[in-house]
Amino acid sequence: MEEILTKIFLAIVLGGALGMERQYHDKPAGYATNCLICVGAMLFTILSEYMGHFGGDPGRIAAQVVTGVGFIGAGSILRDGNKISGLTTAAGVWLVAAIGMTIGYGQYILAMLTACAILLFQLGARKTIKWVEGLRHYDSINIVCEPNWNTVEKIAYSLESQHVTVLKQEVTKQDNLFHVYIIATFTETEFQKITKELLAMPQVHSLYK
């Protein structure tokens, strides 16, 4: 009984710690979700070992946990145009389940070291991303505007005023609107300025990367 209580407590603490980091940054899978996944994976692992004592296959339930958690993680992945969000949350859910299974098998040190490594990585990755956003990089911009070539020229002038280097520009007409596709090099700060300036134009309907 003491060992089971230790496993439950550790699953709640480690799953909760990873969940709090997600919830603090306003991500879909927060504290409660990660706690439940970690405890659930731990419990299924204990049951799989229990089955093994009675001649069953101890790996059957554990294998299904990996598959089941994959479906849960897939539910957090969203696509908006060319942008995909939720991949980090899905990977986090998968790792939390793995930590729960590790606890279920009694590998407490491995579970704690892994959870600490993930937390340190998440915190360090955010600082690295902020640094990278300050560098110029290749990216695409999709602009939907009125079917007027003067509007296209205004868009080009707006990009030039922000010292953005345009590598490629294509203009197509769909549903009586111009779709301007641009590949350029800019920083994240420059993109935000460009977005505000272009969306302030009444001829521009939408803009996305």
Account of the protein in words:
The chain has 209 residues and is an alpha+beta fold. The chain folds into 2 domains: 2-132, no CATH class; 137-208, ACT domain (Alpha-Beta Plaits). It contains 7 helices and 6 strands, in the order αααββααβαββαβ. The chain has helices spanning 2-24, 31-52, 59-74, 87-104, 108-133, 149-161, 188-199, and strands at 78-80, 83-85, 137-145, 165-174, 177-186, 204-208. It has a 4-stranded antiparallel β-sheet with strand order 4-5-3-6. A hairpin with a 2-residue loop joins β1 and β2. The chain is elongated and about 75 Å long.
Quick tags:
single chain; alpha+beta; Alpha-Beta Plaits; 4-stranded antiparallel β-sheet; two-stranded antiparallel sheet
